[in-house]
Write a structure and sequence with these properties.
The protein is of the alpha+beta class. Helices cover 33% and strands 28% of the residues. The structure holds flavin-adenine dinucleotide (FAD).
Length: 341
């Protein structure tokens, strides 16, 4: 039986970054991906400023650098042009292949079409037949994680999503968010510009707004805004924000397998990268506490915001309007922006 010091299950942003961060050690590392290519993930493809700073993403895989941001409530809007891009958008497939390319000159072993189908003590089974042993196992396999299941950790905090990619000839580099309590409870609609298409989508926790209602309301909202999705690609996939820790003896969880996404914005790429780095540091015996505290605080800030919107009930619409008005104050604007980007 083959044996590796570290087996990472899943070549998403979390798994690949964790692998890259382990590539400067003498540890033997195997990265497994069930699909033929990495990065084939349903996503709006927005990477916020902190993520941009972490990765030196070359221009050729950036679809849009977004300086213009517009936030809408039902009655008001706040538009701001930033001197530097606040978000980049990427095609997840290209982003995935770029991340994988970075591993090419390292000793990390990568296998595609390698689905982990079972986990036993200190060994995994690939595609139902091949056993490989490990010292450390890293679950980087997204919101529907076999590694998390093996740890018997439930996933209770989940967002349902609906999204369309609408093809367009020209796309303005402008990101828009629509807070609309009538249709989306405490959540909102995003509109992210890409090269020749825009991603428009929404999310909600089914406890407050069921997936079915979200979908219906989203279609009503699209109609109200005159947004035509007849030629668009429909997508839906859960987002997990049920964080219960990263380390469980010799098994680790990173990214959405660990529930590291934001339950408010649905952002998860940045948190996936950071958690991947945290776990690589734990395995290497290097300090990780500060990095972990920083990312937990980032999510905590957003979850407190979400909780507040959930608690205030019918006042939610007023709160949305108030947020827009408060953003006109530069101090408040800075505080809120820092908490979300
Ligand atoms: C509609 C939607 C829009 C989103 N928009 C954004 C956005 O704009 N910005 C943002 O930051 N986040 C966004 N997210 C969230 C973001 O996509 C995820 O948080 C992020 O991709 C998580 O990264 P990850 O590496 O943890 O997992 P993933 O990207 O899900 O990668 C997991 C990998 O593991 C592989 N895998 C799974 N099971 C197995 C197995 N058994 N064996 C082997 N391999 C396996 C999968 O094929 C996949 O490649 C969005 C999510 C959705 C659903």
């Amino acid at each position: 039986m083959e044996y590796f010091d570290v087996i990472i299950v899943g070549a998403g942003p979390a798994g690949m970054w964790c692998a890259e961060k382990l590539s400067d050690t003498n540890l033997s590392v195997l990265l497994l991906e069930k699909n033929n290519e990495p990065g084939n993930k349903i996503c709006a493809g927005g990477i916020t400023r902190k993520g941009i700073l972490m990765l030196d993403i070359p221009d050729e895989i950036v679809e849009q650098k977004v300086n213009n941001f517009v936030l809408h409530s039902r009655h008001f809007k706040h538009a701001k042009e930033w001197p530097v891009p606040i978000t980049y958008t990427v095609n997840r497939l290209e982003f995935g292949n770029w991340q994988l390319q970075r591993l090419k000159n390292t000793d990390i072993q990568y296998r595609n079409n390698a689905r982990v189908t079972a986990i036993k003590e200190n060994q995994i089974i690939i595609n139902g037949r091949e056993a490989i042993g490990f010292k450390y196992l890293v679950g980087a396999d997204g919101p529907v994680s076999i590694v998390r299941k093996h740890l018997k950790l439930p996933v209770e905090k989940v967002l349902a999503t609906v999204q369309y990619y609408i093809p367009l000839e020209t796309v303005e580099p402008k990101m828009e968010l629509f807070l609309d309590h009538k249709y989306f409870h405490s959540w909102y609609v995003w509109l992210f510009p890409h090269k020749n298409r825009i991603a428009v989508g929404a999310c909600s926790n089914a406890k407050w707004l069921s997936g079915k209602k979200l979908k219906n309301n989203f279609h009503r909202w699209l109609k109200e805004k005159g947004i035509d999705v007849s030629n668009a690609e429909y997508q839906s996939f859960p987002i997990s924000y049920d964080y219960r820790g990263l380390k469980f003896n010799n098994t680790f969880l990173v990214g959405e397998a660990a529930g590291m996404a934001s339950g408010f914005t649905g952002e998860g790429i940045y948190q996936s990268l950071v958690s991947g780095e945290v776990v690589s540091n734990i395995i290497k015996g290097e300090p990780y506490e500060e990095l972990l505290a920083e990312i937990l605080q980032y999510n905590d800030y957003q979850h407190k915001f979400l909780e507040l919107l959930q608690k205030i009930g019918p006042l939610r619409g007023l709160a949305h309007d108030l947020i827009i008005l408060l953003l006109r104050n530069s101090f408040v604007n800075k505080r809120i922006t820092e908490g979300f980007s």
